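Example (one chain per record):
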Amino acid sequence: MQLKFIKADIWYGSVQKCLGLPAGLGLMVLSPRAVARAREIGDKAHYNSINSMVSQMLNFQTTHTPNVLGIYLLSRVLQAREGIKVIQPHLSERAQKLYDYFEQVQPLGLRPLIDNVEARSTTVIGLQGPPALIEEVKRRARDEAGLHIGGGYGDLKTTSLRLANFPAVPDAAFEALVQFFESSRV
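Predicted structure:
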């Protein structure tokens, strides 16, 4: 999603989901206000304190051995991928296709997990249903279509599932998911 960095002082995220990279590399963007506040607090006791990181950054150094492979892969992925102005509308369109389908057709008795349309994720489509249905959908997706559908978390683990709509998911895989649901009558 295209973010307005001016709307927050600290942005922090991982590269593994939306960029399709291995876990272990985080990205952080700090506003000058966040840096000033960190200096005001003065904490340098922690290995990865903001003050330690900023101090090293100003010397073009790292606080610890960098994940060189992760940084290289991030560079290559960003060079090969369309810009966010292309990716965001594409992902939004794919997400809307799934949300509309599960709201209108409810083919299997599954429905969106989040009722508030404004709060729904574009990159992870949460669906809910009875525990037996959730297990059956995940099993059939794996056995019949070779698709691995994620389960929910915590108290919702048995009654929900997650459909990935990351930029790293190619359109062909997304369409295979759509075809699985359109042809399934669990």
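Caption: Residues 25 and 69 are 10 Å apart (CA to CA).
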